[in-house]
Q: What sequence folds into this?
């Protein structure tokens, strides 16, 4: 999609077979494989990130069509600073020029609330922080979908930050429970993840929303992120709807009598 394009329209037939009453409330995407996508085509890795942006906005459109109220994507991890400086700079520019500038008005008009989850540390350029604040402020009253960009994000860092906040508040050890920790996560109102999709054939979580994914359904696909489209999201949701979610209880109809945690 080039500058100025609007998010493309949806073919309702593509949603066939999806139960509208069992749409996952919160979907997370680990957008992996941009570098390999580019290398396979003899292109610089950064072209993979550029193509990844296009894939992302097709997925956002698909999520809106499905009525998914929370979508969180892993855009830049606390470990990604270890990449070559040129790639780090490029990634920061893609993220800040794209969702935080070029596309923010359109997302706003479509009822999307933009949020950032991650550490605001000295490594994040002031200009990027300012754009983050502006995009979040502009869209803060929207409720159709909350689109969270995990940026300078690490799941362990989020838990460490929550524990530090509790210690700072001098909360007594016997008052520290799951609810207390959740209240100190980056976004306490963010629901647990129902579904996490990771692309590119890697079977890892890589420090993504560790607290929030405790009971989520995980779907791994060989598709590289720049090739991932709304149809792949629909396929993931169909697969999710076939799963039997038990949250540690017994299965609904499968005679799961062994009492094991699942
Ligand atoms: C992992 O692929 C991907 C990333 C580190 C960045 C994800 C960023 C985007 C999709 C750009 C658009 C994002 C926004 C929020 C506008 P990789 O580079 O690790 O791929 P590889 O494993 O094949 O090397």
A:
């Amino acid at each position: 999609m080039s500058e100025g394009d609007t998010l493309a329209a949806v073919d309702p037939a593509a949603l066939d077979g999806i139960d509208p009453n069992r749409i996952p409330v919160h979907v997370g995407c680990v957008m992996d494989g941009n570098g390999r996508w580019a290398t396979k085509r003899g292109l610089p890795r950064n072209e993979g990130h550029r193509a990844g942006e296009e894939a992302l906005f097709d997925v956002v459109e698909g999520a809106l069509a499905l009525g998914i109220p929370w979508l969180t994507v892993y855009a830049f991890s606390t470990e990604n600073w270890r990449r070559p400086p040129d790639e780090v700079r490029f990634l920061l520019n893609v993220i800040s020029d794209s969702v935080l500038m070029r596309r923010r008005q359109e997302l706003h008009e479509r009822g999307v609330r933009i949020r950032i989850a991650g550490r605001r540390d000295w490594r994040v350029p002031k200009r990027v922080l300012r754009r983050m604040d502006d995009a979040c402020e502009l869209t803060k009253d929207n409720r159709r979908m909350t689109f969270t960009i995990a940026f300078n994000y690490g799941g362990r860092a989020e838990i460490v930050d929550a524990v530090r906040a509790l210690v700072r508040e001098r909360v007594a050890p016997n008052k520290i429970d799951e609810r207390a920790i959740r209240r100190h996560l980056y976004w306490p109102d963010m629901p647990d993840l129902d579904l996490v999709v990771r692309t590119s054939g890697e079977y890892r979580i890589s420090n993504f929303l560790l607290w929030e994914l405790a009971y989520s359904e995980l779907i791994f696909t060989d598709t590289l992120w720049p090739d991932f489209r709304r149809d792949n999201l629909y396929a993931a949701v169909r697969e999710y709807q076939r799963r039997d979610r038990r949250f540690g209880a017994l299965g609904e109809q499968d005679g799961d009598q062994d009492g094991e945690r699942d």
Notes: Residues 31-36, 49, 52-53, 56, 73, 75, 80, 91, 94-95, 98-99, 149, 200, 225 surround farnesyl diphosphate (CB under 6 Å).
